[in-house]
Amino acid sequence: MPLPTRFVKMAGGGNDFLVFEADGRDLSAEQRARIALLCRRGLSVGADGALFLSGGEDGRVHLDYFNADGGLAAFCANGTRCAARYAVRRRLVAGSEAVLETGWGPIAASVEGERVTLRLQPLPTPGDPILVWGDGLPTTGTPMHVGVPHLVIFVDGGLDALDVTRLAPPLRGHPALPEGANVNFVEAIAPDRIRVRTYERGVEAETLACGSGVVASAVVAARQGRVRAPVQCGTKSGVDFTVTFREENGFLVDATLTGDAREIFSAELTEEAWKE
Q: Is position 233 annotated as part of the catalytic site?
């Protein structure tokens, strides 16, 4: 199956995506390379990743997510929120509720206009602190898995001035995190509010927001007594998210992520979109 040429551009909290209504389960290496070409900024459409929506089981929507480098990822929270809004607007599901089959598992979503709330799978509690390094950083960070691996590092002031492009790449491949990890730099600024900057694996750059990153950051901040839930999470895009959760029997349950999901435009690709 060739890649479809029709797509919708969507954005969730600053993460932007190419949305295709097609099955992404059996894409070839060549097709994944084409996704990477499409995600280039300046030379093609540009995006943090691509979403493929197709029919799932029992009225669900199957979602395959590919990072900007063309690699398949188990989960992208902001991408899943955009997929839920797409499914509701295009009536791939009945009403304003959707269940999306992701590589992490089924994720339920509620859509109210541009606001989309995900109800996440039960989350394991954060891991033990690990050593980190870099000018202006503390000596430890905290790993946490929210569908994909994350590393959460708190800074006391100076978040805006932090040189994420220099500090994050060595930590993204931390030897204690064999899959690699998204690296989140976090500042607690109020009893119920944090700010987060995230360097994402697969994009290999800082993005304007990361949904699973703000969930990981909010959970770690709350468990360390820096904030209390629900947690308001500011991002580099200026868009805020809300994260809620509670702890039960060693797991974090009833975790939700709420934020915007915008449909920007729909268009058709030309052959020059794939040009190297």
A: no
Q: Domain 6-114+261-274 carries which CATH code?
A: 3.10.310.10
Place of tokens 């994944």: 32
| Cα 97–chain centre separation | 20
Q: Do domains 6-114+261-274 and 123-260 have the same CATH topology?
A: yes
Cβ atoms of residues 226 and 188 within 8 Å: yes
pLDDT digit string (tens) for 138-190?
Answer: 999 999 999 999 999 999 989 999 999 999 999 999 999 999 999 999 999 99
Catalytic pick among 39, 82, 210, 233: 210
Spatial separation of the C-alpha atoms in residues 146 and 75, rounded to whole Å: 8
**39 carries an active-site annotation:** no
- pLDDT tens across 235-251, in order? 999 999 999 999 888 88
Place of tokens 């770690």: 220
CATH, domain range 123-260: 3.10.310.10
